[in-house]
Amino acid sequence: MLYQAELHPACDLLTSIGQIGTRTGRPELKVLIIRAMRGSFATVLNCMDGRIQVPVILHLLDRFGVEYIDTITEAGIVRCLSDEIDSPQTESTLHSILISIEKHGSRQIAIVAHDDCAGNPIPAEMQQDQVRVSVMWLKEHFPHCEILGLWVDADLQVQEIAQS
Q1: Distance (Å, rounded) from C-alpha 122 to C-alpha 34?
Q2: SS3 per-residue string spanning 22-50
Q3: Which of 16, 73, 115, 164 could be 139's S-S partner, Cβ–Cβ 3.0 to 4.6 Å?
Q4: Are 31 and 16 a contacting pair, CB within 8 Å?
Q5: Which contacts (CB < 8 Å, 24+ apart) does range 89-97 have?
Q6: What is residue 70's three-state secondary structure?
Q7: At residue 158, does pLDDT exceed 60?
């Protein structure tokens, strides 16, 4: 049952909110985002944690002024790019970045770490250092791209902590 449809003011997306039943019989909200596949892209390398996806995407849509964000996820992704350079995860991430650049024309890349990361359970300061190392590493590999390092705090606030 559809309750509401509105144009999302932050990113010009048509958002429909409706209810769906569950096995327990309790309704849950479901959000559908509908949009045609055309326009400008940026790329984000993000942890797989679902809590931080929407705040990061909304921040980047505004920050980069693009219509879409290609999202590449890996648990604790900054660990892969700062400490595990020769890992299969890093190789897969590089392949995905190249697709975003070559097929979608992305010219901006963001790398994200966040508070309470299960995939990279180290102190915030160490994760933020990993973000800075990852930004430099990405700039070496993709010198034509703008690279941005983000930190998402416990309140899901997105902070820019590095740029190249």
Answers
A1: 37
A2: CCCCCEEEEEEEECCCCCCEEEEEECCCC
A3: 164
A4: yes
A5: 93/45, 94/141, 96/70, 96/72, 97/43, 97/45, 97/72, 97/142
A6: strand
A7: yes
Of the ranges 21-25, 111-115, 137-141, 155-159, which one carries the lowest mean pLDDT score? 21-25
Handedness of CA 112, 117, 122, 125 (dihedral sign): positive
Contact predicate 127/117, CB 8 Å: yes
* Dihedral, CA of residue 64, residue 66, residue 70 and residue 73, to nearest 10: 30
Q: Are strands 146-152 and 41-46 parallel, antiparallel or unpaired?
A: unpaired
Confidence of residue 83 (pLDDT cuts 50, 70, 90): confident
Is residue 102 a contact partner of residue 142, using CB atoms and an 8 Å limit?
no
Residue 48 to residue 74: CA distance in whole angstroms: 5
